[in-house]
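User: structure tokens for this one?
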Amino acid sequence: MSYQNSDDPEAVSSICAVLAETDVINMVPRGISASNILKGIHISMIDRLAKLLKSIKARESVVMTTDGLALDTGLIAALNEQMVKQKIESKIRSHSDSIYGGAIGAALRGAFRYHRLNSLEELS
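Assistant:
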């Protein structure tokens, strides 16, 4: 299954994950190909992300992708396509280690909270 094999992406709800899941469940019996479903999901996600990028005025900057979707080539391709449509000239960057961004952040936050709670217990 490849993003490039998509010839007619199917629209997926971008309002909430439950509606999007229902959309996908209904697409399967209609015979919509997996690549068209996947591209529809990517487009739905990217439409919202492009609006966020515009709202923070990320017009000519670098956007770093992180966490699990950082290496999703279909998502990155959809993001690049949408940015061209929206006239956003930012560069998309990713790194193979980007997938660890959230985990590292959570670990650092957990360590901070652990030490903070320990220091509070020592004070009491």
